[in-house]
Amino acid sequence: MPHLFTSESVSEGHPDKVADQISDAILDALLTDDPNSRSAVETLVTTGLVVVAGEVRTESYVDVQEIIRGVIRDIGYTDPRLRFDAESCGVLSSIHEQSPDIAQGVDEGAGLHEDQGAGDQGMMFGYACRETESLMPMAISYSHGLVRELAGIRKQQNSPMPYLRPDSKSQVTIEYEDDNRTPKRVHTVVVSTQHSEDVTLAQIKKDVREHLIPKVIPASMLDDDLILHVNPTGRFVIGGPHGDAGLTGRKIIVDTYGGKGAHGGGAFSGKDSTKVDRSAAYAARHVAKHLVAAGLADEAEVQLAYAIGVAQPVSVRVETNGTGKVGDSEMERIVQSVFDLRPAAIIRSLELRKPVFRPTAAYGHFGREEFAWEKLDRLDDIAGVV
Questions:
Q1: The domain 15-99: what is its CATH number?
Q2: Is 245 annotated as catalytic?
Q3: pLDDT-based confidence at 97, cuts 50/70/90?
Q4: Which of 88, 204, 233, 375 lies most in the core, judged by the most C-beta atoms within 10 Å?
Q5: Do the domains at 3-10+138-239 and 122-130+249-384 have one common CATH topology?
Q6: What is the pLDDT of residues 326-370, one digit of tens each?
């Protein structure tokens, strides 16, 4: 039996991702005028309606309605026939001030501890491996690539697939060598994409084979035995928020590693960096990527855990699944010697006061070199303590 592993991704037009992008666009707007803004904003999208709710603390004023309509417009929901579009959808907002009980544990010097504490309790995970140049698992990397490329094809002038609409999903299965670590080939690809009524399924399948897959998956990973499913129900005309309601935070595995490694359960979008659900997950990825890039392991999973109002993590754990060049306990010593994992230090080192979050809300938070938590800026420090 072959060793198989599967991951999925969804496009920017998927209803849950529409919600994530709205939540993060509001956060970025707050941070643009007030870098110390606090935000925990949730979004619901459905037929002809957007609802936002949550807690903020800021000196900034933002036009929530205009931000929402701008996001929807950028994604491509501009046709009223889709029953969800930027100009005609209703917007309801119920955003209020952050609880002072939470704020005093996060404000530097305001709580029981002098340092800025974590915004909540919980555990967060980061992961890295050698399957791709970005040190991300191959299945999620290709899955993201497929839906991102599909959106690019949809938006380009004189598109070779002019029937495309914004909502789409992908899924990639990788077959591994007998060691169950080395990718051998792409076993199965699933692409489901919303489309106009005037196109045949045969045409979509042909175009996916000709215009999509070769741009994302290297020829060396493809063979004649590839199993390809395109719109397997036969029809995907009704989609987006009209087809399914969307909510912030419902694609946490798509956002991270596609099921490789563990997940602490906390979502990212709409949360400012004092929420360790987000900032510590970014820090854990930063650490895990360094351990693999430094040659200390072929695979690394890093767990961080925090208590609300307390700055230092309550635990740091590294698991290399037998691939470490040193023991996992030694790896943990290296991590704690090199990386300052207090929330305030994470925010400074990863530049998380900047309005950088909306781009993270589609196509994954990790494996993308434009983000500070992907920079390999501490390799010399690691070399100095090994």
A1: 3.30.300.10
A2: yes
A3: confident
A4: 204
A5: yes
A6: 999 999 999 999 999 999 999 999 999 999 999 999 999 999 999
Tell me if residue 16 is catalytic: yes
**Residue type for 190, please?**
V
Q: What is the pTM of this model?
A: 0.95
Q: Which of 12, 16, 255, 299 is catalytic?
A: 16
Catalytic residue among 8, 42, 85, 167: 42
* Catalytic residue check, 381: no
The residues, any chain, with a CB within 8 Å of residue 157's CB and separated by 6 or more, are none
Rounded to whole angstroms, how far apart are CA atoms 71 and 182? Answer: 39
Q: Quick count: other Cβ atoms within 10 Å of Cβ 156?
A: 11
Strand partners, 230: 191
244 is catalytic: yes
* Catalytic residue of the set 57, 169, 278, 342: 169
Closest CA to 120 of 286, 287, 314: 314
Assess contact for 228 and 201: CB atoms under 8 A: no
CB atoms within 10 A of CB 330: 14
Task: Record the tokens describing residue 11, joined without a space.
Answer: 């496009």
Q: Cβ distance 331 to 143 under 8 Å?
A: no
Annotated catalytic, 366? Answer: no
Q: Which residues contact 21 (CB under 8 A, 6 or more apart)?
A: 12, 71, 75, 269, 358, 361, 362
Report the alpha-carbon distance of residue 135 to residue 356 in Å, rounded. Answer: 22
Give catalytic status of residue 155 as yes or no.
no
Catalytic residue among 165, 260, 275, 289: 275
3-10+138-239 carries CATH number 3.30.300.10: yes
Of 3, 34, 53, 55, the catalytic one is 55
From the candidate CATH numbers 3.30.300.10, 3.40.630.180, 1.20.120.790, 3.10.20.30, the one assigned to the domain spanning 122-130+249-384? 3.30.300.10
pLDDT tens for 209-260 read: 999 999 999 999 999 999 999 999 999 999 999 999 999 999 999 999 999 9
